[in-house]
Amino acid sequence: MKENANIHAIKKEVKLHLDSDRYEHTLGVMYTAASLAMCYGEDIEKAMTAGVLHDCAKGIPNSKKIKLCEKYQIEVTESEKKNPELLHAKLGAYIAVHKYHVGDETIAQAITSHTTGRPGMTLLEKIIYIADFIEPGRKEIPKLDEIRRVSFQNIDQALFTILENSLAYLRTRDKVIDPITEKTYLYYKDLFEKRTEEA
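^ that's the sequence the OP posted. Answer follows.
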């Protein structure tokens, strides 16, 4: 797959700000997003751009994430104050627009929602959310092989299964659950129940 010059330049810049493991993960997400875009008819360049930038703020220390959000007037919720790690998504979207000059709002939105999801996600958002979970370097997690397979057959089913698994994981480890993740899960659960009733 030939990359355009812009994505190539972004990759080089992003590499300077991430450790080697995170950069490998980023490349995995970028190429997985491109594959999902091919499968579902999404713009491949948009998917690759969102994929390569999805974790561009991940390497920023948590205390600095909060300060930067205050500086750039990015809203920080109570759950994000308790778990500043979550802020890398919102902050990453801001950096994508202001540092990497991403002018497409759908790309910025896909970066914003790649960690928590949100009700009524666009196709590009679903692609980045799922690519982040299933990329080839992802360590073994329950049902991963099955989710990878379903991701290329039924994107909504894959999304719902990932949300379900993520919430179960957070609950068993007593982790802070972002209310948006809970709302997203309930939104897609309701959607699936309605579809099942209509079938």
